[in-house]
Each structure stands twice: as C-alpha cells, then as structure tokens.
Design goal:
CATH class of the largest domain: Alpha Beta
Radius of gyration: 20 Å
Number of helices: 14
CATH architecture of the largest domain: Alpha-Beta Barrel
Strand order of the largest sheet: 1-2-3-4-5-6-7-8
Number of strands: 10
Shape: globular
CATH topology of the largest domain: TIM Barrel
Order of helices and strands: HEHEHEHEHEHHEHHEHEHHEEHH
Low-confidence stretches: none
CATH superfamily of the largest domain: Phosphoenolpyruvate-binding domains
Distance between the termini: 9 Å
Length: 329
C-alpha cells in the first residue's frame, strides 16, 4: 500500500514526522531524568512524543567541554532504539566545535536523530557544520539550526533552503540582547515575545522560511516554566498564530502543555480520518464530503492533522491508526 504521507506530502514527508516538543537538558542528572521520562511517555502514548536534546553549549563547563562530550556519548549509548536523542554542540566558531562533532557525531551518530547547531549566522556556518558531519562519517544526520540574531533572521530563507537543514529554531533571549537595549526586557517574557513587533517579525520570518522549503519551524523557550497555564497559552499562540509546528521545552513540566497545545481536537481528528479514508477510496481524486469539495490540497491538510495527532499521542480511530503501524512505513 502506498502511504498517504508519500502521496500527499512529497518532499515534505521527511520533516513532517518530527515530534512537536524538543526538550533540552545539559546537567547530567537532568539528562538522565529526561531520557527516563521520554521512555515512560513513549510507553504511555504509544509513540515518542518529544525529542531529548543533550546540551553541550550550555551544559559543558568552561574547560570541561571534552569531558561533557564524552558524557553525552555515554548517555546516548544507553538510550533505547525507540528513543529520539539529539545533541546541541557548540557554535561553529567555538574552539570545541570540531572536537564536539568528531566525538559525538563520530561515535554515536547512529544513535542520534539530529545535531543542533547554535548561533548560525549564515549559510557558510551550515556548510561548515555539514563538512564536520561528513568528516565524522555521519552523513545521514540532519542538522537543526538556531537563529539568534537580526542578521541570521535576514538570511533565514537561504539557511532553510540547505538540504541538510531539517528545522530552524528561534533563539529569543540572544535575539533580544543582540539589539543593544532597543527591545525591552519584556520582549523575552511570555507576553512580550508575542507583542513586540521586532520579535514577532523575526518569528514570522523563520516560520515562513521553513514552510517555503518544507522544513520544521521550532518555537523558542518560555522561561516561566512553573506556570502551566502560561506555558500552554504561549504554545497555543505559537502554533495557531505564528505557524510553528514544534517548540522547545526547558523543564519537564513544560512537555505536556506543549503536547496539549499542539494537538488537534477530537472533532478535528474524526473529520480528518473520514476525509482521508474517502480520499484514499477515490484514489485521491476529488470528492464531495458533507457538501464540500475536497482534493489533494485539502487531503494534504487533513493528513497533517492526523500526523500531528499521532505525534502528540492523541487517540486515533482504528482506520487512522492503521496508517501509523510499522507495516505501512
């Protein structure tokens, strides 16, 4: 059976399967807890609903970069085959970058879902990161990049176009501080980051660049990690107003609110299941469904509803669940 993903998404199919939550941790105890929590929630939901990104950039102490990279390697090797583990290395201009890539991508590239490159300023940075991957014999690994400056935002479309890049993330706090005080501190808050024009503009540029090239836009952190309502409201705005399909978590308490905010509702899932089933029965030719015309354009939308439902651990009707069994991939 030809899978709807291949028929309807084409070149976008590879990037559409990313979990909607990317959870960061850099301290050993928290990295171990994050991997354990991922395994628990994979069992609970029947799918891996968030990535764990082991952090070298903020996690490694100055002078201890090599030891931290070795720790990340050891933890990645302990992860199960069902786990989705990534690593944020140091920026390409950091003295530890080359060693990070050689050690981590070179030794555990087969265990990783991707490598995150922070502080990407230009396409040249992506090319340098790709070369490091190839030198480490990890040519299969995609790159995720972090856009953190006004200049990088201006080059977002060029960066997103690179075939090695799978996702662009927005680095809110570095972006705000790069403006030399022109953006007030409120621009980093859960409210201000959705209202300050320069911040909103940057988010929209990144999201637009990703969608133009079939990549995944990943929304920035919310620092008020102890307030679940604030977290969920921010995630909902990122998803529904700004076009983001993925979001960072920096505390375990943020994971479930992100999943809830990015998940489609039960009625949306039910309608999508019916429309995809009818489209498949018609071999994806146009159909009339409840008085409305549907063709491949709308089929694509409703298939993505089902993808997102699966990625967020929502219950799916049996006929939709069948599309996500191993046999169909």
């Amino acid at each position: 059976m030809t899978h709807p993903r291949d028929i309807l998404l084409g070149a976008q199919a590879a990037s559409s399967v990313l979990p909607v939550c990317d959870h960061y941790s850099g301290v050993e105890a928290r990295m171990r807890k994050s991997l354990a929590l991922q395994a628990e929630m994979t069992e609970e939901f029947g799918a891996c609903v968030f990535d764990v990104t082991l952090d070298c950039e903020d996690g490694a102490p100055v002078g201890g970069e090599a030891d931290h990279a070795a720790l990340v390697v050891a933890l990645a090797l302990l992860a199960s085959d069902k786990a989705r583990v990534a690593v944020r290395v140091h920026p390409v201009d950091h003295p530890a970058f080359e060693a990070d890539m050689a050690t981590i991508a070179g030794r555990v590239g087969h265990k990783l879902s991707h490598i995150m490159i922070p502080k990407v300023e230009s396409l040249d940075d992506v090319v340098r990161a790709e070369k490091a991957l190839l030198d480490a014999r990890a040519a299969h690994l995609p790159l995720h990049v972090l856009i953190e400056s006004p200049a990088a935002v201006q080059r977002a479309f060029e960066i997103a176009a690179h075939p090695r890049v799978q996702s662009l993330s927005f680095g809110l706090m570095d972006f705000v501080s790069a403006h030399g005080g022109a953006i007030p501190a409120e621009g980093m808050s859960s409210q201000g980051q959705f209202t300050h024009p320069l911040v909103v503009r940057a988010k929209l540029e990144i999201a637009s660049a990703c969608h133009a090239w079939g990549k995944v836009p990943s929304h920035c952190v919310v620092t008020e990690f102890s307030d679940t309502a604030v977290m969920q409201a921010a995630a909902r705005r990122a998803a529904r107003e700004l076009g983001y399909t993925r979001m960072w978590s920096i505390h375990p308490n943020q994971i479930r609110p992100i999943l809830e905010a990015f998940a489609p509702g039960e009625r949306d899932i039910e309608n999508a299941t019916k429309i995809i089933a009818a489209g498949a029965q018609a071999d994806w030719a146009p159909i009339s469904f409840e008085g409305q015309l549907h063709d491949r354009a709308s089929y694509r939308y409703f298939w993505q509803v089902l993808e997102r439902a699966h990625q967020t651990g929502r219950a799916l009707p049996a006929e939709a669940q069948a599309y996500f069994t191993t046999a169909l991939h």
